[in-house]
Amino acid sequence: MAPIAIPSCNLSPEQKEILIDAVRQRPAIWNCTSDEYNDIGSRKNAYSEVAALLSNDAVQYSAAEMQTEWKKMRDIFNRTLKKVIAGTNPKEITWRYWHKMQFIAENEKLQILKCVRKWNKMARKYKTDVSPTDGEFPFKHLVENGFAGVDSNENFSDDGDLGQETSSAQMTLDWLANYQCPSFNIDEPDIKTQDKNAYMNDNDHAQSLMEPNYNLPQQNGPAAKRKRTEQTISPSPNGVLGNSSANSEADIFGAFIANKLSWISSRNFKKACQLQKDLMEMVLKCQMEVFETQTNHDL
């Protein structure tokens, strides 16, 4: 039987401030390295305490409702954090709770590591089990078989149902030990002296995070138009998308992934969303490695 969806509480900005402060004071909810976090009973009690803080004579909230509201806040923070790691200037972040939720930044990087380890495991399996034959697309087996093992119901947040056990203690910190996230400790603007309209609401901010941000140089004039025309992607006879001006394996692989993702989405949207999430985690991991390499080179 499918779980019953928890409706949104539609918390006010003031209530969300209280929610964040209450969660910060309860490591059982957010600190995946604490013993309390790994104790289901402690987490239930923590959410119940938060619910009691926000409840009043008019409205009584439940622990499950507080968990749902916190997860929405955390998801938005997580996507914003990834954009900053990928190169967005922290000073450009307009989400009003960005600074207030910095206490969970390190834990969110642990969740990225969890996805990276999952990819590494699949990559090792591909290297040992696959011997591509002549003429066979080298990544085809990985895409069609390796990703097929991804459980679309798997929870990457480690903050799912209250009754769900976690395995965060099994994660290693080798990768994070070698990567230093850009500093987020910048001066927080005085909200009281600024126009409140300068801040995005949660829905607008979440929508902006879904929009691509490639930061590509802009070109103008006839030459740029010709270049864009040359790079038009069109289907090839074998069903794999191809780029008329790029024949590298990376370009072919990217077009192949786009084609397969579209095919999967037309048959199982949930599975396609899970696959897209995994791919984004892999891309971000590579971006962070490049960032670290460039930083070390500059030093």
From TrEMBL:
Q: Which parts of the sequence are annotated with region: Disordered?
A: 218-244
Bias (Polar residues) ranges: 231-244
Transmembrane feature ranges: none
- Give GO terms for biological process: regulation of transcription by RNA polymerase II
SMART domains per the record? MADF
Looking at the record, the residues that make up the MADF domain are 18-109
A Gene Ontology cellular-component term: nucleus
PROSITE patterns tied to this protein: MADF
Read off the PANTHER family from this record: COREPRESSOR OF PANGOLIN, ISOFORM A-RELATED, MADF DOMAIN TRANSCRIPTION FACTOR
Descriptive protein name: MADF domain-containing protein
Lineage, top ranks: Eukaryota, Metazoa, Ecdysozoa, Nematoda, Chromadorea
